[in-house]
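Sample entry follows:

:::
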Amino acid sequence: MMRFLMPVIFSMAALASTSVLAQGYSDEYKRCLNTSYGQTETVKKCVEKELKSQEKLLKKYYENYLKNSGNNQSYVKQQHKIWQNRVNQQCYLKVTSSLLKVKQEKCVLEMTMERAYYYQIK
């Protein structure tokens, strides 16, 4: 039963994620998920690789936004720290399940993409 539910859960999560942040995921990530067949380790690798790419974008857009914020730099830094704390609270649960670990990493990925987009459009 659980072997059947895992691919369904991953598929639903991937579809929900894609609809929310369709402009943000790389084609490579989408291909990786589409060929993962719900294998937890494969999905985890897909998410980890995409998260690294999205973290680079976040850093780039954040630094640019910070540079252009003039006298408000301390406020921007404070808001960024608040966002980091929110990511930790929403995404990092104390679990040992590999299935939930992937869910946590997808949570971080999505929040990172949202924040990178926020800085990009500012």
